[in-house]
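cache lookup: miss for this entity combination. No prior model stored, computing from scratch. Input as submitted by user K.M.:
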Amino acid sequence: KAGVTQTPRYLIKTRGQQVTLSCSPISGHRSVSWYQQTPGQGLQFLFEYFSETQRNKGNFPGRFSGRQFSNSRSEMNVSTLELGDSALYLCASSLDWGADPEAFFGQGTRLTVV
Amino acid sequence: AQTVTQSQPEMSVQEAETVTLSCTYDTSENNYYLFWYKQPPSRQMILVIRQEAYKQQNATENRFSVNFQKAAKSFSLKISDSQLGDTAMYFCAFMRGNKLVFGAGTILRVKS
């Protein structure tokens, strides 16, 4: 079956702009999580959605937001981009953490803010 | 707060030899899950092995096995018969609720 698909793979944006990243989870998976990976901070949890509801949110400013659609696809948005937002953004899907705690990751979106 | 510590930033091993990556974590919970993920240069995070805290038996997946010491809050990964394809960043992760908390990672280089 198809894996987790993230689009786009690479993105270059200018400071102050906004960006939207997309994640299509594995078919049948209802939970989608987002992580930010940087050399300095490592992997940090952004938020998790399940059945269109945000269940958990990490310690990120309000410029970072997300949503999930009825088909479980998820988007995350970053507004007013800063240089420090340059990172690899990883999406992970799972059936449901409570039922089967295993996450499958996409290949990530590499965001560069200039 | 749950924290995960990987004390070895980099490690090297000769092909066909065995290597152990260390991980310690801090939690006050009794039931939880621990994972090792591999991230090769392609950046794809791949689950290597999973351990449930209530299971005393150490998890094993082919050449990969863990040494889970719950009282010591230690969760090391042993890779036997190392292969060139094992070269990657390895992350130890702790799960509670519906999120993962990752360690800083260990870069493993397998040499021929």
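stored under new cache key. The first strand of chain B starts at residue 3 and ends at 5.
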